[in-house]
Amino acid sequence: MFKAGFIKRAASLLLAAITVLSFPVAAAASTSSASPYTGKTYTHATAFDGYNRYDGVDVSSHNGTVSWSKVKADGIDFAVIRAGFTGYTKKRHSINTDPLASSNISGASSAGLSVGVYWYSQALTQAEARAEANKVLEILNGAKLDLPVFFDYEFAGVSDGRLDSAWSEGTITKSQMTANARAFCQVIEAAGYEAGIYASKSFLTTQLDGAGLAKSYKVWLAHYTTKTDYTGGYYMWQYSSSGDVNGISGNADCNFMYLPKGSEIGKVYEVIGLNVNSRGDNGTDLTLSWNAVSGAVKYEIYTVNGSSETLKGTSTSNKFTFTDLTPATKYSFRVKAYNASRLIAKNNAYSAYTAPAGVSGLQASVSNGAAKISWNTMTCSGYSLEWATDPAFSANKDSVDLTGSASNSYTLNLDNYATYYFRIRAWQNSGTTKIYGNYSGSLSVTYAPPEPNGFSLSAYTDTSAAVDWNDIDGVQGYRVYTVSGDSQTLAGTTADSNFTLTDLAPATEYKMRVEAYAGSLSSSAEYAVCTAPREVEGFSARIAENGAAQLSWNAVSCSGYIVEWATDSDFTQNTGSAELDASATSYTMDFEGADEYFVRIRAYKDYSAGTVYGNDSAYADLSVLPFAPSGFRVYGRGDGGTDLYLSWNAAKGADVYRVYILNGEEQEYKGSTAESRFIFTDLDPAAAYSVLVIAENEYGTASAQTAVCTAPAAVTGLTAAAGGNTITANWNGTD
Hints:
One of its GO terms (biological process) is carbohydrate catabolic process. By secondary structure, this protein is mainly beta. It has six domains: 45-253, TIM Barrel, CATH 3.20.20; 275-353, Immunoglobulins (Immunoglobulin-like, Sandwich); 363-447, Immunoglobulins (Immunoglobulin-like, Sandwich), CATH 2.60.40.10; 456-530, Immunoglobulin-like; 540-622, Sandwich (Immunoglobulin-like), CATH 2.60.40; 630-709, Immunoglobulin-like. The protein contains seven helices and 51 strands. The strands form 13 sheets. It has an eight-stranded mixed beta barrel, surrounded by four helices. Strands 14, 15, 17, 18 and 19 form a five-stranded antiparallel beta sheet that branches. Helix 3 links the parallel strand 6 and strand 7. The longest helix is centred in the N-terminal third of the chain and has 17 residues, at 174-190. The radius of gyration is 62 Å and the shape is rod-shaped. The relative contact order is 0.06.
């Protein structure tokens, strides 16, 4: 490749983006074929039987201006362009840009050729080789290539050349030159390009470890013959430097490229499709797969650390499982594909993380509607906590990712009452992807509804009791029971935080139990309630002759009575009351002005949680009730003792008086009068009577009794006889 003479470095390079193009598949390689560019027949290695063969050229500024469209039309598939070169002077390490590199790269690409580049090297050290590689990267300036960046290592052919003389003088060795080649390729690969080695047959055997380099990089063999006997690995063969290619003035370097069927020129031939199929065993296992390489019979799988490769194993399929990796660790992997002992493809290092180890120490507890989950910290990027309401983690599943290996707890506010199952796994960041480790074992905690509380007896009657309690969010409803000893009876269910017990006995204390439930979970609390006494019946009032109000009623089951009075019917003005025990059936309001009040009564019942009151009776308006009669006086008797004249003081408020003769429990109605007097006309003479006088108006009555006696009947049969100074009288006796 090297042409004598120095070339001025171009001041600047503007490289057009190179699009990867597909090319027609060439005829399958056979044992021999004729080259239209040399007119000779070439015998191909049997290792390439069945491969596709492509024709290519390599050029530099020594070839002058190239008509790339003519080159393409002449059947050329690819071109390798010299990016630059190192001068062979011994005085200094002189690195130079090929002045036509930019135009050749863009021209070849625009014409539809697949393009790669090479650097003509005279490096004596790894540092010089790396400097040359960095110069190539500067020239490329990020341009996309279809083929590798080749390290062209050869003697200049002059005795005082820097590489020639170093070899002849023994100041550089095969080992050093091989290391130089690797140093160049490592810089190229680190920049994302594929690297390759160009060298002659003799160079690959004498000056370089060609076999070793072929395991890592694609080899471009230079051997000007019709049949190469080089047995090392290669995929391109520069078979002539004197080809005749239309579009290139003078002699042209001609090359064969061999690719397995199914692969295309114009694409970097590498192991592709690398993917992590699975990770496991707490981060020590990782299964790597890739697209099968046509013609490959074996794959070697490596971990890569900088320039160092460690063989981890081999596989005859496009899959391999590592079993001894460190959890939560980033690894670089390389897969090399071989046809027999020849490297035919490899990948740039593929990076992936192993999964983190399993998380230990998982604990959980529930308090105040929240679950607190904790665990032991470990090496990772974060944790994924998952929960569900079934042990299979399929019902109501949710999760949260917590960033940072130091996270060791999480508080989850629980929305629904259920048994919650928790498990956790660690994850490791890999770019924008999270690599998850194995789940820990699961554990469960139960979040049951809290016990109902805040009970209050909101309403009651003598046969019912309405109870309220604090609403509990999230429950389906409440079951309400009446409890007696060790047994309970379902009274009903409700979705609201209140319930009314009905069909109860008056003035009776009951124990109720309220059970809040959500699914199969529940909690309960008991509360004592009591029905009211019945409304007091038979309540009546009378005004005594002195103005005192005499109240009476029928007894009911209760703890006592409240008699209440006021000067208005709403019982808001000048109110007063008296509390009486359960034995009372009467009460006298004997204070001044009692007759001017409204009065009512109700019973109450004391029980363990308080006091309940019966309904108020209808009120009595004392101001409209008549007073009881008073001041009874017999103001006359007559008609042989049958008549009796009785009067009394006019009773306040009375419209009429009804008069009765009492005989034990019997009452004999004698008549009524609007005046405060009454004349009996049918009494027995000389008889004692008990008289009941009831003062009455439309609002009520008031009564009083008095005892009277009729006059005897007139004496009959009276006779008298005088004798001396004596008169003797006789009459008929009376009963």
